[in-house]
TrEMBL record:
Pfam families: GGDEF (PF00990). GO terms for cellular component: plasma membrane. It comes from Micavibrio aeruginosavorus EPB. GO terms for biological process: cell adhesion involved in single-species biofilm formation; negative regulation of bacterial-type flagellum-dependent cell motility. This is diguanylate cyclase. The lineage of its organism: Bacteria, Pseudomonadati, Bdellovibrionota, Bdellovibrionia, Bdellovibrionales. Residues 207-342 form the GGDEF domain. CDD domains: GGDEF (cd01949). One of its GO terms (molecular function) is diguanylate cyclase activity. PANTHER family: DIGUANYLATE CYCLASE DGCM-RELATED, REGULATORY COMPONENTS OF SENSORY TRANSDUCTION SYSTEM. PROSITE patterns: GGDEF. Residues 149-176 form a coiled coil.
């Protein structure tokens, strides 16, 4: 995203953004600030439309919603801009190297002609001065040839270094595009891709996997009582617990808001319920502490819905079954794991 504004314009947009952030009771974090700066600058129709819809529908503008909008509209724009710049650098590098190679080719042709000419004249040279003149000409052209070669070596060395830097930058872009900025978990985009990949693998291998949908109990009231910064702290605590609790090929992702999703390849329903209970118990043992005051704010719990993949099942149906199991866990008192029943007439691949 480019910000081609004069200083006075930038100050105006910045002041409006900060005023709105404070009025909405939001944390002035870089991503939320950028979202509102872009909104008032009017440089992203998508951002403007999305925020205007929230306002017109009288929906509460939360930090989670702001971050989701930032991820959806601005992170991708930044990544696209970085990729565009990388493409321009690659083109410039190829142009420079091509030019150096062309110069060397021309110099080689000229040098070859010089050697042929000298070879022909050496047979007819009769004096030392004539021989000295021929040798001097060869040495001069040889020096030019060496200079062209050195230039090509320098261009190739520079291009190699640049390509390595571009590779690192693009890998970072790819990683950021698939990672939730707040928790460090895989984001929704990465989750969707992983779910498709795992389901395809299990179909071809006739294997089984389990999906866990996880939701923090009473998160909204916790967020309202202690503030959004503490709410973010809770999300990070849960995310860290999930990361510590999954292994190997398991994939933990932030599905949206206070809801998380975990894909457990090569795992049946019984094992998936066991993993859900282990994670639930691990979270329940951890205190949430106000980092500013050091005060213990209590402990959090979470509910888990588990569904085992049925061979050939649509991923939307699998998610709906896991979500329904999560609702059952909530309805039955929270802080528990519920398993989704296998639909009538269907058989799980792990049965």
């Amino acid at each position: 995203m480019n910000y081609p504004h004069e200083a006075h314009q930038a100050r105006e947009f910045a002041e409006k953004a900060m005023t709105r952030i404070l009025d909405e009771g939001l944390a002035p974090s870089p991503d939320i600030y950028e979202l509102w700066y872009v909104y008032y600058a009017g440089i992203s129709p998508e951002v403007t439309r999305a925020l205007d819809i929230l306002v017109s529908n009288r929906q509460k503008i939360t930090e989670d919603r702001c971050r989701d909008l930032h991820t959806r509209f601005l992170s991708d724009a930044r990544n696209e801009e970085m990729i565009r710049r990388a493409g321009d650098q690659v083109k410039a590098t190829i142009k420079n190297v091509t030019g150096a190679v062309r110069d060397v080719k021309n110099a080689t042709t000229s040098y070859s002609g010089t050697l042929e000419d000298v070879s022909r004249k050496m047979g007819s040279a009769k004096t030392v001065d004539e021989m000295r003149s021929l040798v001097t000409n060869v040495m001069g052209d040889t020096q030019k040839m060496l200079e062209h070669n050195h230039k090509l070596e320098h261009e190739l060395e520079q291009s190699s270094t640049l390509m390595e830097e571009l590779q690192r930058d693009l890998e970072q872009v790819r990683k950021e595009a698939m990672t939730d900025g707040l928790t460090g978990l895989a984001n929704r985009k990465a989750f969707d891709a992983a779910l498709d990949r795992v389901s395809s693998d299990m179909q071809s291998e006739q294997g089984s996997f389990t999906l866990l949908m996880v939701d923090i109990d009473h998160f909204k009231s916790f967020n309202d009582n202690y503030g959004h910064q503490v709410g973010d702290q809770v999300l990070r605590l849960v995310a860290r617990t999930l990361i510590e609790g999954v292994k190997g090929k398991d994939i933990a992702a932030r599905y949206g808001g206070e809801e998380f999703a975990i894909i457990l390849p090569d795992t049946n329903l019984t094992a998936g319920v066991a993993v859900g209970n282990n994670l639930r118990k691990a979270v329940a043992t951890k205190d949430v502490i106000n980092r500013t005051t050091g005060e213990k704010l209590g402990r959090i719990t979470m509910s888990v819905g588990v569904a085992e993949y049925i061979n050939g099942e649509n991923m939307t149906d699998l998610i709906e079954r896991a979500d329904a199991a999560l609702y059952t866990a909530k309805h039955n008192g929270r802080n528990q794991v519920a398993a989704a029943p296998t639909p009538m007439g269907k058989r799980s691949t792990g049965a």
